[in-house]
Amino acid sequence: MELDQLRYFLRVAERGSFTGAARELSISQPALSRSIRRLEEELGRPLFLRRPRSVELTDAGEFFEARARQVVQLIEDTRAELTDDGESGRLRVGAIPTVAPYLLPQILQGFARDFPRATVSVQESPTERLLRSCARGDVDLAILALPIPQGALECEELFEEELLLVLPRSHPLAERRRITLTDLESERFIMLDEEHCLSDSIVAFCRKDLSQPLVMERTSQLMMVQELVSLGHGVSMIPRMARETDRSGDRIYRSISPVRPTRKICVVWDARRFHGRIHAEFLARIRAVALSA
CATH number for the domain including 187? Predict the structure, then answer.
């Protein structure tokens, strides 16, 4: 039994497909199939139920997946601990799309300057995907918005951020300094797709006032939300950090009165795994930025 076989098996189990796993592993599908078949022959049990377009784990496969993940994690952690020199190494950082482009660049720039021998990769995904990636060890830490499901991951709150109402400059409410939820009852809202937690925060805030936002359009990018607002398609709520990088003169941002909507940003990681000095340094820089937020 080889380490690569275990990695291949875990990737097929995660993707539920030999084709998708082979593509991500950069090997041919026949080579991947042969490797898994040899593993099954060695164990004397089928690990997958093979269907025309997908595969799923057998009972033996589910048992083996847990053990294989422990073995791979132990080997990777051991290698990382033995080679940790505090200057080099690989760090995989995850962040939700409404945080990544606004918070990470300033951290990455300084980190690359101070640790030129370290490699940092960034995964930008919605919350649920990042939690899975962090639990699997595909990312070392992830920056998310609360709440998140209780689990084995360590969670540290970083800061609380206001959500600002964004209006087209020509909107009648743009001239008013005090805007309440009542003023927005008949407004059409533009929001991110439902997999993005920012939409949940907006809906939850509106429901506190016993109102439901009238959602007319959804998109996958926060910048597109802002552009659609500029074009008069509706209004929305935007994190303050996105407002601070907006150089357009087509939009107006206002706080909502009397209670301002907010979201809480956190960082999560798997405390059961070994994390070297590069991880600790990057985490310290995230905390430093959070203090100034």
Answer: 3.40.190.290
The Cα 218–Cα 66 span in angstroms is 38
**HSE of 161, CA atoms in CB hemisphere, 13 A:** 32
Cis bond upstream, residue 30 (ω within 30):
no
d(CA 159, CA 145): 10
Domain boundary among 82, 113, 144: 82
Burial 157-177 (b: 16+ CB within 10 A, else e): ebbebbbbbbbbeebeeeeee
Quote the domain boundaries for residue 118.
87-293
Q: How far apart are the first and last CA of the chain?
A: 50
Q: How confident is the model at residue 209 (pLDDT cuts 50, 70, 90)?
A: low
Q: Report how far residue 6's alpha carbon sits from residue 256's, in angstroms, rounded to the nearest whole number.
A: 53
Helix (H) or strand (E) holding 188: strand 188-192
User: Does 201 share its domain with 124?
Assistant: yes
pTM: 0.77
Number of domains in the chain: 2
Residue where a domain terminates, one of 82, 105, 121? 82
CA of residue 67 relative to chain centroid, distance: 26
Distance of alpha carbon 273 from alpha carbon 271, whole angstroms: 5
Specify whether 120 is located in the same domain as 244.
yes
Longest CA span, the chain: 74
Query: Beta strand pairing status for 141-145 and 251-254?
Result: unpaired
Burial class (CB in 10 A: 0-12, 13-18, 19+), 51: exposed
pLDDT tens by residue, 29-44: 999 999 999 999 999 9
- H or E element that contains 114: helix 100-114
Structure tokens at 37: 């078949």
